[in-house]
Write a structure and sequence with these properties.
about 525 residues, five-stranded mixed β-sheet, alpha+beta, about 60% helix, five-stranded antiparallel β-sheet
Length: about 525
């Protein structure tokens, strides 16, 4: 704004200088008229002086001589007067021009500064507002002519500040609502780029915000069923709701997914919003309700039928044959043990699944737990002429319940022995990273099909039903293991290849989290 003030000052001075120059020129043009009038007055004065001198000395001159004397005297006087007046006039005009120009410069500079200062202040305030500084204010002075403009700018600044404050509060509320809602939310632009995801979505799919923000939804590794649902909403541009099943990090989830187009002002189509409600637990409970009676009755039918059949055979007279009696009693004993194990596992699983179930968390070493688990399962290992391979460099300290982790280890080792052929090796490893102590139990057994890995932790689910049942398994071991690991706020993963073997990876936190008690 200083350049504008300088330009205005220079323009004003040029205008005033031009006016003064024109004025000086006009004065210069009027100079001959002034000289002529002055000559006439001077001529009369000279004639009177000559007449007075001639009269005093009593000199008589003819009329022609007197006029010649007058003429000669006038020429001499006129030349000297004109040169004198010229010099004085030019000096006076120059002095007046300089004085007028200086006075006008001072006055105009003062006036321009007073006129442009409020404009400069208002302009600076407007620039600050344009930068987003809505706290900027213009100076208001009731004696200034620009006061209405400054007042209007200040009203605009206050309104912008209020609007910004309201918008920030609304954005914070919306962000809090989106981040803390229990459902996964994802907003996708019209080009297929992800613009908004919430914390629940990132945690559910094990992603970071940098992995998804601005990326095309097909490139971030979403389950195929979810991609197909999003494509359907894009193609139809209509609200759509569907229950879908998806596999995330080797776990099956049931989602109720709702998708709808986002319509902006003037009916402009902006993209779609996807909301996913996790109904896995509801579906699981419903499935448990449906399958529990069938599964339990199926598991109980074989031992009860065996016990009843052999008992009837004995009652019909087979007890008289001592060899047959001992054989049947041994079978009845095994089947009753199997019933007892099934009932114990059902009670254990029911206890673990009860609301409020906790484990006794305290610092502990995993090395002793692994050794104890190997000792407890040693007899079963010897029965199949198998051996352990131990890979433990050093002990790892975690926060856990030693008794429950021993239960986890023994169940996993028993499973590895059950599904492995004779003369094979069960490998036990102990590792750690920054967050978890890691237990790995790897066998050389039959392996698990890829599509079955997500189901191995279901109740009564068996990869090889005949082998598991013949070995005395109840089908509840891995379900118990999974619940116990989750009670420690840990994780369990499965890596398997058919015909090669299976590796169970258990991760127990090394530090106590806020959710552990």
């Amino acid at each position: 704004m200083k350049s504008m003030s300088n330009r205005l000052f220079l323009t004003f001075m040029l205008l005033l200088g031009s006016i003064l120059a024109v004025l000086m020129i006009v004065i210069g043009q009027l100079f001959p008229v002034y000289i002529e009038q002055y000559n006439e007055q001077a001529s009369l004065q000279v004639q009177e002086s000559i007449n007075q001198v001639l009269a005093e000395r009593k000199i008589e001159l003819t009329k022609e001589d007197r006029e010649a004397l007058y003429f000669a005297q006038n020429i001499e006087a006129t030349d000297s007067i004109i040169s004198n007046v010229h010099a004085r006039l030019y000096v006076v005009l120059a002095i007046l021009f300089l004085i007028a120009l200086i006075l006008m410069a001072i006055v105009s500079r003062y006036m321009i500064r007073n006129f442009t200062a409020p404009i400069d202040n208002v302009t600076d305030t407007a620039l600050e507002l344009a930068k987003g500084n809505y706290r900027a204010r213009a100076h208001e002075n009731e004696h200034e002519r620009m006061m209405p403009l400054s007042h209007s700018i200040n009203i605009l600044a206050r309104n912008l500040q209020d609007i910004t404050a309201i918008r920030e509060v609304e954005e914070e509320r919306l962000k809090t609502l989106i981040e803390n809602m229990g459902s996964s939310l994802m907003m996708i632009g019209r080009e297929g780029n992800i613009s908004i995801v919430n914390r629940v979505f990132l945690e559910r799919f094990g992603m970071q915000i940098d992995d998804v923000q601005g990326k095309v939804f097909r490139t971030i590794g979403l389950p195929k069923t979810l991609e197909q649902f999003i494509d359907h909403v894009f193609l139809t541009e209509m609200p759509y709701r569907q229950q879908i099943k998806m596999e995330v990090q080797q776990e099956l989830y049931n989602k109720e997914v709702y998708g709808a187009p986002v319509i902006g002002d003037h009916g402009r189509w902006l993209g779609v919003v996807i909301v996913m409600h996790d109904i896995t637990e509801l579906v699981r409970l419903e499935q448990i309700r449906k399958d529990f009676v069938a599964n339990v009755s199926h598991e109980l039918r074989t031992p009860i039928t065996s016990i009843k059949g052999f008992s009837e055979t004995l009652l019909d007279g087979a007890y008289k044959d001592e060899k047959m009696l001992l054989s049947f009693l041994e079978i009845i004993y095994k089947e009753s043990n199997r019933l007892q194990m099934l009932i114990q596992d059902l009670l254990e699983l029911s206890k673990i699944e009860q609301h409020g179930f906790t484990v006794n968390i305290m610092p502990m070493g995993l090395q002793d737990v692994l050794i104890r688990g190997a000792e407890l399962t040693g007899p079963r290992l010897d029965e199949k002429n198998m051996s352990f391979r131990v890979d433990i460099e050093r002990d790892v300290q975690v926060m856990g319940d030693a008794n429950r982790i021993i239960q986890i280890v023994t169940n996993l080792i028993t499973n590895a022995i059950t599904y492995s052929p004779e003369n094979t090796i069960v490998t036990i490893r102990l590792k750690e990273n920054e967050t978890y102590g890691i237990l790995e139990i790897e066998d050389q057994g039959i392996g698990i099909e890829k599509h079955e890995i997500a189901r191995v932790f279901e109740r009564f689910y068996r990869v090889d039903r005949a082998r598991s049942r013949n070995s005395g398994g109840t089908g509840l071991g891995l379900a118990i293991v999974k619940h116990l690991v989750e009670a420690h706020h840990g994780r369990i993963q499965v890596e398997s290849e058919v015909g090669i073997g299976t590796k169970m990876i258990v991760m127990i936190p090394k530090k106590l989290t806020n959710s552990l008690h």
